[in-house]
Amino acid sequence: MHFSCISIVTTSAPPAWGGNAKLGASEPPSCCSFLMLRQEKQQLSLLLSLHCLPSVHSALFLFPRFPSPFHISLSLSPPPWPVSDKFIEVDNRDMKEKNPWHRPVTIIITVIGVIAIVALVTVAVLQNKPLSQKYKYGIVLDAGSSHTALYIYQWPAEKDNDTGRVEQMHSCKVKGPGISSYASNPSMAGESLKECMREAQRHVPASHHSETSLYLGATAGMRLLDLENKSASNKVFLAVADALQKFPFTFRGARLLSGQEEGAFGWVTVNYLDDRLKQEFRLYGNDYQLYTHSFLCYGKDQALRLTLAHQTRTGLGTIADPCFHPGYNETKKYSDLYDSPCVSDRKPQQAPSNFTHTGIGNFQQCQEVVKKIFNFSRCEYSQCSFNGVFQPTVQGKYGGFSAYYFVMNFLNLTDTSIPLESVKEKLARHCATPWRELKNKHPDIKLKYLAEYCFSGTYIITLLTEGYNFTSETYSTIEFIKKIKGSDTGWTLGYMLTLTNLIPAEAPDTPPLPHAGYVSIVTVIALVLFVLFIFSLRPLWPRCSKQPQIV
Ligand SMILES: Nc1nc2c(ncn2[C@@H]2O[C@H](COP(=O)(O)OP(=O)(O)O)[C@@H](O)[C@H]2O)c(=O)[nH]1
After folding, report:
1. 494 contacts 288 by C-beta, under 8 angstroms
2. Distances (CA, A) of 248 to 204, 245, 342
3. Could you tell me the pTM of the whole model?
4. Over the stretch 268-321, which tens digit does the pLDDT of each residue have?
5. Which domain holds residue 13?
């Protein structure tokens, strides 16, 4: 290493030398490593490495014990003392103890490096951030037996082949009964849908209204009306179609879904939402064998009619129903009870116009009455569920939704890890609860639902075990579900996915890394590069970061 010496004669009284002199100020030498000071009387000597010298003209020296910084000019002269290796060694050792990070060059490099990393990560994040999504929309009206519900779905518009995930964006429960109840006044069926339709208009952006498909599918209630009075059911469909066409969406028809369609679309919905269709991606575009059977008249409401019909079959004026709570007492009309194709042919001759429906709240007896509505003995196949209908052995997970969920949720029985025996004990306690006590405990629940939960729970457990052959061992494979990933379980999503060809023939490609993972990796690599960059500047560290020493 080459050194040259600079001698400086100070004009003022010699400062209180000692400690470290800091070099800085307006025109600092670009490089000043191995700056060392020697004091002889009033003469200050600086030892600088040669390559520093061209840029050294003047400098500001800060002496810790001198009252204020002072400016001195530098002049070059040959070194007045020999530069020994020992001297340099000692000096180097001293310097290693100093923290180099506060030296200006290091700070500048660090700042530039940090800015570079921030810039790199920002660019990566911005470049790869999903662009502001544009969506497509679809609307499906589920015209059920007891009520109609409207569902709005949305999915990303820019995905090729519509492979984007379809999600439920909004739902609206139509006020009033199901559309089949408007058989005698069809126009009111259309009228009843308008409030939810206006809500849909507000939720779907106006610019998308015309391209948004609107479907209405009707299930059990309309199936029964169709059996009972085809012309009345046609009029209801015409009325709802007429009302729906007046909205700015693309109306794609109001129709009756068969029981098989309802089952299959429900299956598509839950498997789509659970990502099972994507896992077994050959399902996309392939035929898949699916067992589905819909038991008309065995929905919860019609099953209750069947049970009551069984109990009133002799035309009694009063029935003591084990499926209703002790203290329950309501006068009901025979004509209302038998006003359904599920029971109309069983109406007892010479029955009074009313009967008094009282409760005794006994789960075991209720189960016995409920069993009476099924025919378990007739089966022409290897195995049956009931009423002579073939059913393969149940495999995999079984999802119970709609009424299954409403009822089991109220009874706090959606957890199917609870042993079946405990479920029955809990149900028995619920059924035995006096009606008055139950009403006081649940003042907010619709009385019709509240009165029927004992029957409904007993019916569900009986249907699952005696009808669909679930056992204590397989009961835990059932899941009572309302929503999956924010979307309601039911046939509507599967219906829309199928009709709008939203399940493509091939499974969509997924990027190898999620966005967050990608950004993390870029950040880590950038940091590693930065550290390597800092280390690559190491040769500059000693010269640029060492403190001048007074020797
Ligand atoms: N507890 C309860 N039951 C309901 C509710 N909404 C509908 N239900 C019942 O659930 C069953 C299915 O109703 P719905 O969806 O209208 O009929 P479906 O589509 O023809 O099966 C019927 O027994 C209704 O009485 C609710 O909010 N709470």
Report:
1. no
2. 11, 8, 39
3. 0.71
4. 999 999 888 764 734 556 677 889 999 999 999 999 999 999 999 999 999 999
5. 3-110+538-550
User: If you measure from the C-alpha of residue 147 to the centroid of ligand 1, how many angstroms do you get, rounded to a whole number?
Assistant: 7
Catalytically annotated residue among 167, 195, 261, 262: 262
Distance between Cα 315 and ligand 1 center (Å): 29
**Counting atoms of ligand 1 from 1, which one is nearest the CA of 301?**
23
Helix (H, G, I), strand (E, B) or coil at 152: strand
Is 437 assigned a catalytic role?
no
Tell me the CA–centroid distance for residue 205 and ligand 1, in Å: 30
| Ligand 1: nearest atom to the Cα of 456 | 23
What was the ipTM of the complex prediction?
0.96
User: Residue type for 423, please?
Assistant: V
On whether both 155 and 91 belong to a single domain, the answer is no
Residues 46 and 170 placed together within one structural domain of the fold? no
482 in a domain, yes or no?
A: no
Nearest CA to ligand 1 atom 13: 146
Q: Show contacts of 99-106: CB within 8 Å, 24+ apart.
A: 100/541, 100/542, 100/544, 100/545, 100/546, 101/545, 103/544, 103/545, 103/546, 104/24, 104/28, 105/540, 105/544, 105/545, 106/541, 106/544, 106/545
Instruction: Find residue 153's DSSP bridge partners.
Output: 138, 168
